[in-house]
């Protein structure tokens, strides 16, 4: 088979998915601050101690202003010795939500261990630096102190090692065949079981193509060039991200399809079905994906969406969302929705100059009520906003 005919595609804006990035940027920052306050030996943080955290938290406003925005989570009080120094501790509501989060972490520990194993199994040396893992902690739904708790409880799964450059890493102790099964394979098998798809039965008989689910912006899918290209792509053999790829020509279409499969799997393992491009870049060599991997996201807009919201580049797995909502929300994402609802309610009360809202009232409404109304799945082609395929900035 000859090389695939590749079509240069315009970047397409998806308002629903951009909205997800918008609200989750503040949510993630609030969760990190909540964990930092909880870890603090004094049980509070001073405004001075968090003043330099703005970039780390991905915020577009100073940290002090951010903390003051959400009085339902962060209770402000003056320092005992320095009256002009604002301090912040967690409200009763925040502490209650945190204890619910602990319960979820405990009851879903087996799932977290499996996801962490899968991430390590995709790496060339079955190791990942703790720095890279720390960046992915929120996206993978790892508990705050996972190195001291989760990892230590599973010595037959994980161990700490030092890389040749001296960086601390987490390593997989033993390969686990039962986990070497991608989300795409599972999806196709589930469809096969329900009689929806015969391709998986063929795949198991040794015919190695598997279909990636794709949804195109209006007008894209109908273009003959795009359709022909995607048909060619789908017909290429599917190589599991858990299989050895050392014998595949790195310049081939097959290697490109393998790289798409790796990115698809890694995004499937995140609980919000998304992560920042920079986080992926730190693991690029271990994942054996091309240096200029951003072009894979722009080249396959039926599978991925690249959002430029909040002064960063986030990549989203499109099949994980429908009308801006997660299709199969993990219990932790449901709790985070509740957390966001509490944030938003406090923000609105504060903006209206009302008194403190009661804990009962805060948790009364469903968290989804406060999110934007479900819109259409419509995406629009934004003229002049073509993403540079080679742009690997940040």
Automatic annotation (TrEMBL):
Compositionally biased intervals (Acidic residues): 367-394
PORR domain: residues covered: 12-346
Lineage: Eukaryota, Viridiplantae, Streptophyta, Embryophyta, Tracheophyta
Protein name listed in UniProt: PORR domain-containing protein
UniProt cross-references to InterPro entries, sorted A to Z: PORR_domain (IPR021099), PORR_fam (IPR045040)
Originating species: Arabidopsis arenosa (Sand rock-cress)
An example molecular function term from Gene Ontology annotations: RNA binding
Region feature Disordered, mapped onto this chain: 365-394
